[in-house]
Design brief:
The protein is mostly helical. The protein has helices at 13-32, 35-53, 60-80, 101-119, 142-161. It contains five helices and no strands.
Length: 163
C-alpha cells in the first residue's frame, strides 16, 4: 500500500538523538557566541537536515519539531543580528543563516513532494562514491542530484541575498 505524502509516526531513536544533540550543540554555539562558529553552525545545519535527516523529515511529527526549531533559530537571529561582535568582514551578521533554517525546511518539503510527483519516489540525499542512498538502498539518479543542487543553491542564495 502506498504511504500518503504526509503521515505521523512515533519518533525513532535517531530522531530523538539527532534533535537532542542538535539542541545541545545549538545552546553551546549560542553561549560561545563566536562569529566563525555560528557561520559554520548554520551552514552545517542546512547540510545536516538534508543529508542525515531526509528520511526522518518524511514523518510529519519529526518535521514539525524541526520547524519549531527553525522558528527558535529565527528568533535567535533577531536577537543576534545587530550584535557587533558577530559582524563578518564581507558584511552582514554571522547569524544571518539562522533566519533561513525554517525556510530551508520548507524548501526541503517542496523538493520532497516534487520528487514524489515527478519520479514517484521519496527524495534521498546523494552521497559521494555510492550509487545508492544510505537509508533506503534506493538507486540515486540524476534528478536526486538536481534536487540537492536546488536545495544548496537556495541555502547559499538566501545567505547571499540577505547581505
Amino acid at each position: 500500500m502506498k504511504r500518503p505524502i504526509f503521515y505521523f509516526e512515533k519518533f525513532k531513536p535517531w530522531d530523538i538523538w539527532s534533535i537532542t544533540i542538535y539542541v545541545v550543540i545549538s545552546v553551546c554555539v549560542f553561549l560561545y557566541r563566536d562569529k566563525n562558529v555560528i557561520s559554520l553552525y548554520t551552514i552545517s545545519t542546512y547540510l545536516f537536515i538534508y543529508i542525515f535527516n531526509y528520511k526522518s523529515l518524511r514523518n510529519l511529527s519529526v518535521y514539525l519539531v524541526w520547524l519549531f526549531l527553525g522558528l527558535v533559530q529565527f528568533f535567535a537571529y533577531l536577537h543576534l543580528k545587530d550584535d557587533y561582535s558577530l559582524m563578518m568582514a564581507q558584511g552582514g551578521s554571522a547569524a544571518l543563516g539562522l533566519r533561513n533554517i525554517f525556510i530551508m525546511l520548507v524548501v526541503f518539503q517542496i523538493l520532497r513532494i516534487a520528487s514524489l510527483n515527478i519520479q514517484h519516489q521519496e527524495l534521498v540525499a546523494p552521497n559521494r562514491g555510492s550509487t545508492t542512498d544510505i537509508f533506503d538502498e534506493r538507486s540515486i539518479n540524476w534528478l536526486d542530484y538536481v534536487f540537492f543542487i536546488i536545495y544548496a543553491l537556495c541555502a547559499f542564495g538566501l545567505i547571499y541575498l540577505g547581505k
